[in-house]
Amino acid sequence: MTTSREIRYYDYVNTSYERVCEALRRDVLAVCRAATKTAASRAVSLASELHVNVGGFEIGTDIDIRLEGIEEHGADPKTPPKTTFALEWQAARMPRLFPFMHAQLVAYPLTSTETQLELVSRYDPPLGAVGAALDALVGRRIADACVHRFLTEVAMHLRQTLAG
Q: Per the structure, how many domains does the chain have?
């Protein structure tokens, strides 16, 4: 039996928390799609894509991503504001060969002009004992790199679209 693996990464957007959350609340899935697909691919597909460079080879797969909920925290003046977007994704094709991911994209203010993004994700390796062995060899590094790149691309997209 395998246990869930947690992956956590941070990035920032040099824009106010209010503007970042407004963009994410409007359509977090569109932000994810726009951040992870090339312009040409976006015109054809509504899927997002996870990809990573491993040993000089680009590995990627389209994913089906869903928003499971949004939580607002910090309504009282003693607690800093924080917004959490619960996401789930799996490979669009052959999902049993790839991990099913549960993630929380969390936004909170660092300053009045900077917003911290945190992505906390959990996955169980696919394919039982064989998948656990593959995860121990290379799967963890690939999952780490994919999640890190995903968050980096979301933050970069927000920095570019909310600049000014």
A: 1
